[in-house]
Amino acid sequence: MKIGDIDVAIPVFLAPMSGVTDSPVRRLAAELGAGLVVSEMTASDELANGHWMSRLRCEAAGIGPHVVQLAGCEAHWMAEGARIAEAEGADIIDINMGCPARHVTGGQSGSALMRDLDHAVSLIDATIAAVKVPVTLKMRLGWDDRSRNAPELARRAEAAGVKLVTVHGRTRSQFYKGEADWDAIRAVREAIAIPLVVNGDITSYERALAALNASGADAVMIGRGAQGQPWLPGQIGRRLKGGAEEAVPSLETQLHYIRTLYEGVCALYGLRVGLRHARKHLGWALDVAAAASGASVEKLKSWRQKILTSEDPRLVHESLQDAFDDFAWSAAA
Ligand SMILES: Cc1cc2nc3c(=O)[nH]c(=O)nc-3n(C[C@H](O)[C@H](O)[C@H](O)COP(=O)(O)O)c2cc1C
């Protein structure tokens, strides 16, 4: 698949997730084979105004194309944010028209833009005019069931010069409820010729295949399914390319991944903030490892309690080793 001039060989992408997919997470997923990884959404005005956190959100993973996702509702900020992202190394700019959060839609950004396609297209035009790199777009099916206008927005975006469209198969009013409707994305496929990515509830090779078949998309994007399983996009990608089914990585390998992530997050934010920030990843990693080893709920609960409340980074490392050793006992029992 090509995004502008950029070749993407593996049709499985890691979704942008605010507060989750910072550079260490993206780096690990990309190293493990994800075809493309997308930064957390960054408010274009904050980026343009040099807000330190938005700079961190845009930090490159250092492997594969660097995709920066921008949110916003004013053309001049979108243009300025895109210019800065490009100057700082973005290979692709993605525009967020899918975020359902009230603090985002209340400011007329994210999925609120699907209620006013003329305005949405004016933001796309301004972004494309500001940069040389390809611009892509992520959206939902529409605002609600009465206004499922993703095909119309996708068609207009393609005409404006967008190089790839991703659709999360829910409306904004669904938030994350119900099931993603991959069939409904077929109407977007029929509206555009540029690459299309299907997103929502893809957690396995079988579901990836079903989503591709139902939607006619060229690639899948995985969000929550990759939490605690950074290897999942790569594994699914290799299988879609004809590779054999792969087992869940060994506990030893899983421990190596979570340690890598923990160290990366602490290096990015500093020890104190990093420790807090890493907790969600530690929790997901423990959940996945406990499930893989058949460890009891009580065992998992007590390790979660010990590791996720620790204020001592060194102790977290030691306790992780102990927890995974304990899970290995459960697996052997
Ligand atoms: C914690 C969280 C944060 C998210 N942040 C973003 C974001 O910054 N930008 C975006 O386009 N979508 C964001 N999303 C939506 C995901 O990219 C994706 O569209 C959605 O989770 C559905 O895919 P999934 O079922 O594979 O998780 C977020 C989702 C979650 C769960």
From TrEMBL:
GO molecular function: flavin adenine dinucleotide binding; RNA binding; tRNA dihydrouridine synthase activity
Span of domain DUS-like FMN-binding: 14-313
Keywords: Flavoprotein, FMN, NADP, Nucleotide-binding, Oxidoreductase, tRNA processing
Enzyme class: oxidoreductase
Annotated positions binding FMN: 69, 138, 168, 223-224
Keyword check for Flavoprotein: yes
Requisite cofactors: FMN
CDD domains: DUS_like_FMN
NCBIfam families: nifR3_yhdG
Function description: Catalyzes the synthesis of 5,6-dihydrouridine (D), a modified base found in the D-loop of most tRNAs, via the reduction of the C5-C6 double bond in target uridines.
Protein name (Swiss-Prot/TrEMBL): tRNA-dihydrouridine synthase
Gene designation per UniProt: dusB
